[in-house]
Design brief:
Helix content is 52%, strand content 9%. The protein is an alpha/beta fold and 402 residues long. The strands form two sheets. It has a five-stranded mixed β-sheet with strand order 1-3-2-4-5.
């Protein structure tokens, strides 16, 4: 509680963060702004405000995009403040069915295997069509998850937890794949291994690694997040690694902020790392005469502070035309489980992004460095009837390898 108050008291109420806050921009309600939320938490911590549904709702409406934190002159650790507040009020049974399910699948290998098998049955037979016709996902309160499912791709089991480089050795990297990547984005994992081993890095992929814990922590479940951190620490600590790379910036920011220093100090976004460590990459790539719209996730920009990496990496592809989204664009609305729990705001923010991405000529690809954002954006495009592939920057690089 002392820490909570000290962090909240650091806010000087200047309001510079307000125009950068997606919920304030859409609501013009001070309670939905960073400054307003901090004032609410301060009043609650000082026992001037009772716990109420309204109070919790204002705090829960925050996406934890940390745009406010990035521009704050008083360096208020806004993300930690909100996580801390949520942990004080955490009640396990309050989590929605969809979120409880996501957390269970994220942190539990047997559940992931069952989910793989279930998805295969659901998506490769007429079951999905029939279920949707009968509104079964809605009946079981799973329609928001159902909407996000990409087309089924058979999981390719990774043969090994170590992949040796095929080039002159530049170093050893650990690859943190994350729970959603393991389940829904196998192509990015394969692409990361392929590019890293091609440019000179030995890749370690410890099997024991698990969910980064972000879903649990942002839900207020600090104990579960700490358990997952412990498992990940054990999985990587004996390996001779120069760096631990993430392919989802949501995981990267969690690991940088919440792991012990000897682990967190090695964490880097894969695009940023490759952009800084390979200057001959262009010679290994085929030209791609196509327009690629670049989405920069909040976790990459505001937490990892590595927003230039994907741009610099993609610029290695000959003939590519990169269309960046306007800087004024705020969060896409994905934000971990936010898109499931706050569908209305998530949709408003997604519409802003899609309108900007499609404002001029439709790009040939849209790239994003975070699996959650990619799924949310892809679902929005599908709902608009637009065929546009959404993929990770490293996947595009791997496809262009000669
Ligand atoms: S910018 Fe920082 S100090 Fe100013 S109101 Fe926002 S959180 Fe408070
Ligand atoms: S984290 Fe994002 S949504 Fe939350 S208050 Fe800050 S800017 Fe607004």
């Amino acid at each position: 509680m002392d820490k909570l108050l000290a962090n909240a008291d650091a806010c000087v109420k200047c309001g510079l963060c307000l125009p950068h806050c997606p919920t304030y921009t859409h609501s013009h309600d001070e309670n939905e702004s960073p400054r307003g939320r901090i004032a609410l938490i301060q009043a609650w911590a000082n026992q001037q405000l009772a716990t109420s549904e309204k109070l919790v709702e204002h705090i829960d409406n925050c996406l934890l995009c940390r745009s406010c934190e990035r521009v704050c002159p008083a360096v208020v650790p806004y993300g930690r403040l909100i996580d801390n507040f949520r942990s004080h009020l955490y009640v396990e049974s309050d989590a929605s069915f969809a979120l409880s399910l996501m957390k269970k699948v994220a942190s539990n290998k047997p559940w992931q295997n069952i989910t793989h098998a279930g998805l295969k049955l659901y998506q490769t037979t007429p079951l999905q069509k029939i279920a949707r016709l009968l509104s079964l996902p809605k009946l079981f309160r799973l329609e928001k998850i159902d909407r996000l499912l990409p087309d089924y791709v058979a999981p390719v089991s990774l043969e090994s937890s170590y992949y040796a480089t095929t080039a002159h050795v530049k170093g050893n990297v650990g690859l943190f794949v994350g729970c959603m990547g393991t389940l829904l984005d196998q192509e990015t994992i394969r692409a990361a291994i392929s590019v890293l081993t091609t440019v000179g890095f030995n890749v370690y992929l410890p099997e024991q690694q698990t969910c980064c814990g972000a879903l649990a922590l942002h839900d207020g479940d600090g104990a579960n997040a700490a358990q997952l951190a412990e498992v990940n620490h054990r999985a990587f600590k004996e390996l001779p690694l120069d760096v631990i790379l993430t392919i989802a910036s949501g995981c990267g920011s969690q690991l940088q902020d919440h792991m012990p220093a000897e682990f967190s100090g090695k964490v880097a976004d894969i695009s940023q790392f490759l952009a800084q460590s390979t200057n001959q990459l262009g010679e290994l790539l085929k030209p791609l005469p196509a327009t690629v719209c670049l989405h920069t996730p909040c976790s990459l920009k505001n937490a990892m502070r590595a927003e230039q990496g994907a741009l610099k990496l993609l610029q290695h592809i000959p003939d590519i035309n990169i269309a960046s989204l306007p800087n004024t664009l705020l969060c896409c609305g994905s934000a971990g489980s936010y898109m499931l729990e706050h569908a209305k705001m998530a949709q408003l923010l997604l519409n802003d992004l899609l309108d900007a991405a499609l404002a001029s000529d439709q790009p040939d690809y849209l790239v994003s460095s975070n699996i959650g954002c990619a799924l949310h954006i892809a679902a929005g495009l599908k709902e608009r009837g637009i065929t546009l592939e959404v993929l990770h920057p490293i996947t595009l690089i791997a496809r262009q390898l000669k």
